[in-house]
């Protein structure tokens, strides 16, 4: 039976149909359209963007991002750099990151490696040795570390990065840094991976995010991340691409005829959409692909700025609330055991510090989330706010309104966030190498002309569009 949304698809033949209009789906569509392909994007929601959407979730005039706010990798992504300026208006905060401690001090990650190192005392030289080579040669690192499987352009540089990246965050931090501040700062970076910090390759995300903070400053989008999605859609339209929203695809058979299809979906969704058409071996491999841990998120409308004890936190758009390295590691280990941590590692983002357009004059928006087991059904709000109050006494007094996002609500808002997993699958060593399967071309499926372009493919999570770019190039190489 033909779905009703097909009636809204313009007549004619298509070179490619892209399912999903998140950053990867739109990047795939733009990459193909730039090569002269006639591209149709179909989106299940009534609004394009996926993880790049903004809305007044709490009170009128307060603009919140539904998922991505900080463009940690996006700001230095080759795809985003290729966009016209009107499609990506970023605002860079004075500090990329602050990590406060109980004594009122905070470690900070500055745009400059030397500036960051100067605040880490005896660990400053080690921080510089770790990150300066990555930042100084970022374009080479991005090509080799954030690309699809390939022969590296600079094998010795990649090997140097890889030897550190395959280590656990715990072993690298203990071997490289002697002081508590540098270790804690690195722990917070690595904890974005939502995997135990004692696990192999958990250092990789810490190295990449530290390098991107120095290289790009971890900016926000002026007016909300939805503006970036709107810019991508406008750019696609200028290239001749077409977008249809409110078009939920249940089966591949529902798609309009086209030469190829690119799917910004999880492996589990691909299995459902393909039915029994995929070979058994590939179906089993997709079924083994594990979702990552979930997040429990709270959006805040604030009467005033957060009353941080450490002044540095008022200059950073991102604040990591995890205390010591050991405390952050314990939080992530608890999640891996299937438990909600008593003292969760909390990521707090306060975009109105650099973008006041998101709230009425003098007011602010912020969001915070903590990691929880996938599909967790409890209430983490009291623990999240206890962590915020710990470093910002009086925070609850400036809260006007809250919008709470459980893992289940996140999945309803975006089916790619299965069980609250916003990263497209666990980012452990196995699934960094086999994402979603072990292959020299992980974007191509056994079905002729069907490609996967979601964050469940390399290089993984983040609002950077590179998964979509690589999938589109795979399709182009194969003649589509």
What does this structure look like?
Helix content is 34%, strand content 16%. It is α/β, with parallel strands linked by helices and 480 residues long. Strand 1 (14-19), helix 1 (23-34) and strand 2 (39-42) form a beta-alpha-beta unit. Helix 1 (23-34) packs parallel to helix 17, helix 5 crosses helix 6 (155-165) and helix 6 packs across helix 9 (203-216). The longest helix is centred in the middle third of the chain and has 14 residues, at 203-216.
Write the layout of secondary structure elements.
Blueprint lengths: L13 E6 L3 H12 L4 E4 L11 E2 L8 E2 L12 H4 L8 E2 L3 E6 L5 E4 L3 H6 L5 H13 L1 H8 L9 H11 L3 H8 L3 H12 L11 H14 L3 E2 L4 H13 L3 E3 L13 E6 L3 H8 L5 H9 L5 E9 L13 E6 L3 H12 L9 E4 L14 E9 L8 H11 L7 E7 L1 H7 L15 H5 L16 E3 L13 H12 L3
Strand order of the largest sheet: 7-6-12-13-14-11-15
Strand content: 15-25%
Average pLDDT works out at 95
Structural class, from secondary structure content? alpha/beta
Main sheet overview: 7 strands, mixed
| Oligomerization category of the chains in this entry | single chain
Number of helices: 17
Instruction: Determine Rg (CA atoms, Å).
Output: 21 Å
Label the overall shape: globular
Low-confidence stretches: none
Can you tag this structure with a few keywords?
alpha/beta; five-stranded parallel sheet; about 15% strand
Please outline what is shown here.
The chain has 17 helices and 16 strands. With 480 residues, the chain is an alpha/beta fold. Helix 5 (138-145) packs across helix 6 (155-165) and helix 8 (180-191) packs across helix 9.
């Amino acid at each position: 039976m033909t779905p009703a949304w097909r009636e809204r698809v313009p007549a004619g033949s298509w070179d490619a149909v892209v399912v999903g209009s998140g950053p990867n789906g739109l990047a795939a569509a733009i990459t193909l359209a730039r090569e002269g392909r006639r591209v149709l994007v179909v989106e299940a929601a009534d609004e394009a963007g996926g993880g790049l959407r903004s809305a007044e979730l709490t009170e009128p005039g307060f603009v919140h991002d539904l998922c991505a706010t900080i463009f940690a990798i996006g700001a230095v992504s080759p795809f985003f750099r290729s966009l016209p300026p009107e499609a990506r208006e970023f605002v860079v905060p004075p500090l990329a990151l602050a990590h406060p401690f109980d004594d009122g001090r905070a470690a900070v990650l500055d745009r400059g490696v030397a500036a960051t190192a100067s605040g880490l005392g005896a660990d400053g030289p080690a921080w510089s040795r770790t990150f300066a080579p990555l930042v100084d040669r970022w374009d080479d690192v991005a090509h080799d570390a954030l690309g699809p499987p390939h022969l590296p352009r600079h094998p010795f540089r990649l090997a140097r990065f890889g030897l550190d990246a395959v280590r656990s965050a715990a072993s690298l931090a203990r071997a490289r840094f002697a002081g508590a501040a540098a270790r804690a700062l690195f722990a917070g970076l690595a904890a974005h991976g939502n995997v135990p910090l004692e696990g192999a390759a958990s250092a990789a995300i810490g190295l990449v995010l530290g390098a991107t903070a120095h290289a790009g400053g971890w900016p926000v989008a002026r007016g909300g991340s939805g503006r970036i999605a709107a810019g991508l859609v406008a750019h696609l339209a200028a290239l001749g691409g077409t977008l249809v929203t409110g078009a939920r695809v249940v089966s591949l058979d529902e798609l309009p005829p086209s030469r190829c299809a690119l799917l910004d979906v999880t492996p589990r969704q691909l299995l459902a959409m393909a039915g029994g058409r995929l070979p058994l071996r590939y179906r089993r491999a997709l079924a083994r692909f594990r979702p990552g841990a979930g997040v429990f998120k709270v959006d805040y409308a604030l009467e005033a700025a957060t009353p941080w004890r450490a002044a540095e936190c008022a200059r950073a758009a991102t604040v990591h609330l995890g205390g010591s390295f050991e405390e952050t590691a314990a939080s992530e280990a608890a999640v891996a055991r299937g438990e909600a941590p008593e003292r969760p590692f909390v990521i707090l983002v306060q975009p109105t510090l650099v973008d006041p357009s998101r709230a009425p004059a003098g007011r602010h928006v912020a969001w915070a989330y903590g990691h929880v087991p996938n599909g967790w059904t409890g209430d983490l709000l009291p623990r999240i706010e206890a962590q915020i109050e710990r470093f910002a006494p009086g925070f609850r007094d400036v809260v006007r309104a809250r919008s709470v996002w459980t893992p289940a609500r996140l999945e309803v808002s975006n089916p790619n966030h299965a069980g609250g997993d916003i990263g497209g699958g666990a980012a452990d060593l196995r699934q960094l190498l086999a994402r979603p399967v072990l292959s020299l071309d992980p974007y191509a499926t056994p079905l002729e002309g069907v490609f996967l372009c979601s964050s469940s493919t390399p290089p993984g999570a983040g609002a950077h569009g590179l998964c979509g770019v690589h999938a589109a190039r795979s399709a182009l190489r194969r003649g589509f």
